[in-house]
Amino acid sequence: MIDSGHTKGITRYTMGMKTAVSIPDEIFERADRLAKRGGRSRSDLYSAALKEYIERHGPEDVTDAMNRVCDAVGQERDGFTEAVARRVLERTEW
What we know:
Blueprint: E1 3-7, E2 10-13, H1 25-38, H2 42-57, H3 59-73, H4 79-91
Antiparallel strand pairs: 1-2
Helix pairs in contact: 1-2
């Protein structure tokens, strides 16, 4: 998005995909207040919120995060965990 200037402290954006969505009135009003309080446009607020949601819920991002955790924990063998896992698998109906 390109910053096209300021109006009353709120940055306006004119480039990028324009879209129309339907949201409940209460969510709209809360978002509007939050944008005003933060001195940003609703478009900027919605864009930031959607970006954060995608980053948190994108399957490839979740997989990457899990892989990082597994790498950090390491691959050391744990006899207790192996025994418990074996017991669960033996008791599970396949």
